[in-house]
Amino acid sequence: MCILSKNVAKVIALIAILLAMSLPYPGQAVEEHISLPTSLMKKLYADDINITHIADSELFFSSLLPLIKQLPTELVSKQSNSIQINLNLILQDFEALNAQLYAEQQTRIDFSEFQKWYIASIQKSSPSTLRQLITNKLNPLSYAALFQYEHNLNNTYKNKRQQLTNLINEIRDTKTLNTQQLIHLASSTMDLKIMTSVYVIAHPLIQKKWQKDFIIEPSRLITTTQGVEHTATIVRPKNIDKSYTSAFQFTIYADESRHIKTAKYAALNGYIGIVVNSRGKRLSKNKIEPWVNEGIDAHRIIDWISKQSWSDGQVVMYGGSYNGFTQWAAAKYKHPALKAIAPYSAAHPALGLPMENNIFLTANYQWGFHVTNNKTMDNSEYANRDHWNNLNKTLFNSGRAFKDIDKIEGRPNPLFQKLLKHPSFDGYYKAMVPFGEEFADITIPVLSITGYFDGGQISAIHFMNEHYKYNPKANHSLLIGPYDHWTAQAVPNSHVTNYKLDPIALQKDTEKVVFEWFDHVLNSAPVPDLVKNKVNYQLMGNNTWHHVDSYEQLNQQGIDFYLGNPSKSKYQSLLKQKPNPIAQHTQVVDLADRKVQHNIDYMNVILPELPDETGVVFVSDEFEQDMQYAGAPSGHVFISINKKDVDIGFNLYQLMPDGQTFHLAHYRSRASYANNSSKRQLLTPNQKTKLPLVNTRMTARKLIKGSKLALVLDVNKNEHAQVNMGTGKDVSVETIEDAKEPLILNWFADSKIHLPIAPL
């Protein structure tokens, strides 16, 4: 052994000994922990902790001061400039503050003007200085600029409160902090102190400015002739010599501050902004009843709006998710004053959440509590994600009946239990939304907006397909891109999970597009750039928007794929040629086994390789040129099973030349409802059965040369949904004891999967 190797060995041995003794070894940083004063612990760990009081507490900052003074200069210098400014504010080191402000100006780093104002005000020691600085900022702003400024102010204030809350929750019940935790606690508390100082002055000044030209009614009680009460938020111009079209949202999500913002935006665009809550919310003394009354209630509110002195008799509706559902529910009643609707990510209680293709899901189980626990919204229901994830796992692992989910959680959930009693698309749901020939009478323009990664996509597109099915001349446009449920309704983020959006996809601002479209259909204004045709989609990976005449046309292009003959290879072939119709791929699944889950919809869009799937994997040949995948899968599968029912599904991936995968689509459907969602038709055991693919998901993606497709056919058995044991009983009452013999599922090779692929 050489001398160098001997020395290395000695060092390694020394480090091992020191580690065993829990002592720092040479070159290892020692993590210093600082004991908290009793005064700080009392503030941080009080049962009735008040975040605002902490930020306003001089005692809190005086307790922090000696701890901040002890921080090593070298450590502080490594912090961001914004954090250093906050620490020096606590230390009242104005010489350092002035130097840091100068550095910000010199390097042109974006620096919060709120910090600048606060520093200026405390340096000048004048109680009116901060007010004057804010007033000078607000006075020259147009209403459009004021709206954006108020939006930024509110978001910043909310975020600073949330950041400090999260930090305190992380360190609760600890008597010591490491230095980085101390720095973040001090900086976050100072952030909130600054924001609170600005907010309490700026917010009333902003409202006063709005009231010069607008009448703002935050909570007006409307009582219909039937005695049903609704609370409305209304923003309208003070100009009483003119009447206006009303832009109307009908929502169960009662949030007055958000409603005011929504109504202000409508007013800025030349409309009366009006947001009305479902019966039972806010000031209403009626019972809260999600879903069932929204159509008739919205219809009556439209009638009320159209008869107001400030109304020109025209009403348009817009909004997303549940607020998209309420538009279709209102359209069912065809009020003549309703001139257009713009539903985005439109919900449907029988097609999305909590039920998708007749399979009940657990993903939004807590929603009933969220909207019925109080007169507004109980946001705490969504705060504890671990609780709900554990509930899903516990239910799945226990093998208990799906209907026992509320017993496991510990609280009755009457809304969810009521839905479970309607596993078919029956009269209960048909009374809520347009159905069948009712779509033929919906002649008003419609703009539907959704996203490839939107959980509400299949319901949004279902409404459009049904509209065109019964009214081929419908004026209905679709705008769709790489958005999830939230960004489909607003301005997109740079990423959806780990997929970075094309720059052109970031151009969509949903509310802006919607009001441009309203102006187009009502006032013959130019059509929005993103809505040039009936179907408007963003092709991921190509940085382009495309515009075609119809959804049907988009899906007619493509390639029919079949399942290759069975082989011993890990991956089977996905072929363009028709195979032997009696060839079959056999899958055996133990429905009682809860260690392995099937048909998982993975969180990340891009994976480093094809996941270790539980289903049967079919892989296509490489594409010899760049291709466009744009549309939704269609076709049918032929299967046979040894039971009376099964929940099937698939995942579809692009296999990129570098080995990574891009998730294109996920699917799940109950076999007994595939032919008719309103009527269950059990399968005959061991008989070949044709199942159409229904309500599949659309996406659009450039498939670069050398890519392949991977189709993974599988049974849907996981913690996110019911587990169908195949007995033919109501799946909600089946238990793990009903599993009995393993499921034997044969996928026949002549199954035809049509994928919307064409040369680019």
Structure description:
The chain is of the alpha+beta class and 760 residues long. 35% of the residues lie in helices and 23% in strands. The strands form 6 sheets. Strands 17, 18, 19, 20, 21, 23, 24, 25, 26, 28, 29 and 30 form a 12-stranded mixed beta sheet that branches. Helix 8 (113-124) packs antiparallel against helix 9, helix 9 (129-138) crosses helix 11 (179-210) and helix 10 (143-171) runs antiparallel to helix 12. The longest helix has 32 residues, at 179-210. The termini are far apart. 40% of the residues are buried.
Uncertain parts: 1-30, 107-111
Global geometry: globular
What fraction of residues sit in β-strands?
15-25%
Distance between the termini: 62 Å
Radius of gyration, CA atoms, in whole angstroms = 30 Å
How many strand segments? Answer: 31
Biggest sheet record: 12 strands, mixed
Mean of residue pLDDT values: 91
- Tell me the structural class: alpha+beta
Counted by DSSP, the helix tally is: 23
> Helix fraction?
25-40%
